[in-house]
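Quick question about two entries, pasted in order.
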Amino acid sequence: MNQELPVQEFVIVIIQDGDKFLFQLNQKWNDLSFVGGKLEPTDSSPLEAAYRECTEELNIERDTDYALSILGPGVYRDQKMSKRTGKTI
């Protein structure tokens, strides 16, 4: 049976500080996740939804210590260094 699912718009917020990324502990699933969620009817844009999600999930107010921007489409790679071996992976 091939049922079409309704399209849902959502945002994923990737917060990076140097070589560190911010994740949150998802209490419901007991795992780590990025901040994010569905666009609500009150959101004027995906960027506004991202700010709202940061306030709801991280309890930080907009434009206090951070500013968000839209990441364009593409493939993003980040070099990682193994702390154990000291080699780039």
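Here is the second entry:
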Amino acid sequence: MIIEGKNEADIIENVQGKILPSLRKNHGPDSIEEISTLRLLGPIRIFHNYVPLVNMSKGILRPDWTDDAIFVG
């Protein structure tokens, strides 16, 4: 599940106030065994040129992927 928010407080509020109660209600109070999080901002900035199902083939950028679509920061 990917959860977006305008800031960390917004994400925490959505998870604690909406998502977790909904999961417990729909799937039972013991349905959640573990929660792990990963902040995607850093990895997206580093790896956003590489989208395996969109622009990659056999681990490399497809030859038909235009250089104009590659981010260089």
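Reply: Residues 38-73 form one domain. The first strand starts at residue 56 and ends at 57. Hope that helps.
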